Amino acid sequence: MSGRLVEQIVVAHLQLAQQEDELEILHTVQQIAQEFLPELERIRQADGVRQILHQALKPQEPMEQVADATLSEQLSQLVKVEPGERIPQLEALKVKHPQSTSVSLDLAAAYTAVGEEDKALELYQSIPAKTKKDQDTVKVRQIEILLSSSRFKEVIDFLPEPIAALPPTLAGLKGAALYAMGQKSQARPLLESAWQAGERQYEILLPLARLWSTEGNPENAAEIYLILMDIAPEHLLPEDRANIATLSSLGGFGNISDEQEVSYYEQCVEVAGSRVATLPNAEDILKERAKLWKQIYQLDKFIIAYADWLDWLANQQRVDDLEIELAHLRGISASQQINRRQHFEILEGLEPYVALLPKLRLSLANEYQGIAIDEIDNAIRQGRSEEPFFQNLKRALHYLSPETVPQLIEYQQQSKDEAIKLGIQVHSSEDSKETSPDLSFLRLALVGGHEATRREVVRELTSIYQVQEVVEVAPSSEAYISRSSVQNRIKKCDLVAVITGYMGHDLSNIISELEKASSLSGRVLPMSCRGKSGVVREIVNWAKMNAQLQP
């Protein structure tokens, strides 16, 4: 059972009630939900169901008066109420019914739900459990609190019995505590016995999935992770998402499509954000993700994923591996799977690392020269001017290796002179130049990206395009961020330009949430590039198409 499954059941019944206009169906679905709510409350998945119920209740339908009902009915009615709001009523019932196990259990669960674990533990210890079932229930609730509070030693001390003497739930929870303390060999039989007995609590499933993932049991690990993705996705850490991605490549999920496989890698990168770099298998995750997007011919996704992969290599100072990948990228460009502008913009994203990696500076300069020469040759052959990115390419080359720019200009002129002698019409580079638009009206938020990239973007936008108002929001890898602080800084901007990349996924998620909540007055523009030239180009193109923003 999971909160999501119960939500689906409740929503389906509510839709039927609306279609049939039957009040009785509405009452039935409320009763169904009430049956599940106590258990959902215990596993902290009741909020969604309760919210759906509250939205479905019609104002003209008065709730039963709790005071006029039996104790069982009162407890059933109180389940509909938020934990913090029902605590005073449950405390009053506890005074009236001090020996009631049900009242004490519900009150302790409410304390747990609002974060008062110590009160809950104290109450659990005082519950007069009369049956073996009640005793086990109380133990389970106590252990769940201890586990969530990382008090693993207390769990083990609380359950000194051997595995054969423990009910499956308690055995599994003890196994979870042992796993958390690094005692995997002792944890394994306890966790496996609970799984085989049908226990499906996330506290038990999560350590078992992790255990099987690292011990060569991909099919069983994948089966558990599928359950966890359904019942408790919020408890899956970046390491779990990495396990899931790896399991998909190992065949743990069966014969799935490349599209489904790469979706697991995307989920991992999205959840981990800047923490991708700290994952033990970060290299495999980022490399395989890029390879899969290339296999399914999703060019825009491949460019983003490949840029992430190159960024990670640069961040790890893996210069030799970068050289191999730059050669590979050169081949992709030569085979026209990407064009020269895209090739340049992928490489440009590495420029923030050249101060740290001198060899990379030389490599990028050589790559830029190669792209520039190809563009000059193709422009002459096709009887056109060089594409607009060519000017950005020359500026980037001047930054990396200023002595090579005169040589490039000389090559360009000589090539055109030779073409003219052969009777080939050539176009001057001046023909392709456009007047820079005045963007002084634009209030811009520049979100994410490397500090050096943002600095160069701001410099070019202010000096060439007359942008007056720019708000920079650094990713969490550079500064502390929160939803409220980000909102306050960018809420008045006309355009929120988000520089994508795994290092800024947490920031991208905040922007996405603010956009969905209609908390921003301007448009959100996710950048498909992360180098200076590409970012400037996309911002300028957007502003030119939205010039009506000008007051």
Structure description:
The protein is mainly alpha-helical and 551 residues long. Among the domains are: 1-60; 63-128, Serine Threonine Protein Phosphatase 5, Tetratricopeptide repeat, CATH 1.25.40; 348-433, no CATH class; 443-549, Rossmann fold, CATH 3.40.50. Helix content is 65%, strand content 4%. Strands 2-1-3-4 form a 4-stranded parallel β-sheet, with helices on both faces. Helix 10 crosses helix 12, helix 11 crosses helix 12 (202-214) and helix 14 runs antiparallel to helix 15 (258-272). The longest helix has 25 residues, at 358-382. The two termini are 56 Å apart. Mean pLDDT is 87; it is low at 58-67.
Question: Termini separation (Å)?
Answer: 56 Å
- Mean model confidence by pLDDT: 87
Looking at the overall shape, the CATH architecture of one domain is 3-Layer(aba) Sandwich
What string, H for helix and E for strand, traces the elements in order? HHHHHHHHHHHHHHHHHHHHHHEHEHEHEH
> In angstroms, what is the radius of gyration?
31 Å
Work out the number of β strands. Answer: 4
What about the largest sheet?
A: 4 strands, parallel
Broad CATH class of one domain: Alpha Beta
Global outline? elongated
Low-confidence stretches: 58-67
* Spatial strand sequence of the major β-sheet: 2-1-3-4
Number of helices: 26
Helical fraction: 55-70%
Q: Please state roughly what percent of the residues sit in beta strands, choosing from under 5%, 5-15%, 15-25%, 25-35%, 35-45% or over 45%.
A: under 5%
- Provide the CATH topology of one domain: Rossmann fold
Structural class: mainly alpha
